Structure formats: structure tokens, C-alpha cells
Amino acid sequence: MAWVVLVLAGLFEIVWAYAMKLSEGFTRLTPSIITLVFMILSFALLAYAMRTLPLGTAYTIWTGIGAVGSFLVGVFILGEPASAMRMLAAVLIISGLVLMKLSSS
């Protein structure tokens, strides 16, 4: 159950990062509220998952989901560049996440 909660926390991190971008420096009300709500939810779920998962594993997985997910949102929704170097970086992050998961059995 902690892994499901952790993945959900990571997905919420993607939502709040995207909403923060849309808030234009917290100058737009609705995206600013969405940012704060999903940030709180993401942190709360991370804290819940950390009750049973090791700190290093939980935090690494959470930030990795957020980083790769935000990268994908940037590329596919915001039209940011998807250079070979950026794609390689995302693959390396995912590789690290898989290794972290495998090492925490």
C-alpha cells in the first residue's frame, strides 16, 4: 500500500509543478490554489509512505516521478525541447528509480 501512496504522491507532485508554471509566479489565483492544494496532498502522502518505506527510497522515488513527469509535461504539453541529452537524462533518472525500487525489497 505504501508504494501506491508514494506513486500517487509523485503524480501529485507533477500536478503542482505544472500548476505552479501556469500560476506565472503566483500571480494567477486558480493555478496558485491548485499548486498549494496538490503540494500539501503530495507532501502528506509522501509522509504517509515514509512511515513504512526507507527515507532514501521514498524520497528518491517521489522526486524522480516528479522530475520525469514534469519533464514529460514540459515536452508534450508546454512544447519544451526534447533534445537527445534531455531524453538521456530522463532515462538515467528512470533507471535510478528502478534500481532504488529493486534494492528496497
TrEMBL record:
Membrane topology summary: Multi-pass membrane protein
SUPFAM superfamilies: Multidrug resistance efflux transporter EmrE
Keyword terms: Cell membrane, Membrane, Transmembrane, Transmembrane helix, Transport
Cited InterPro entries: EmrE-like, Small_drug/metabolite_transptr, Small_multidrug_res
A Pfam family assignment: Multi_Drug_Res
Keyword Membrane: yes
Main location per the UniProt record: membrane
Cellular compartments annotated: Cell membrane
Record-stated family: Belongs to the drug/metabolite transporter (DMT) superfamily. Small multidrug resistance (SMR) (TC 2.A.7.1) family. Gdx/SugE subfamily.
Protein name as catalogued: Guanidinium exporter
Species per Swiss-Prot/TrEMBL record: Acinetobacter terrestris
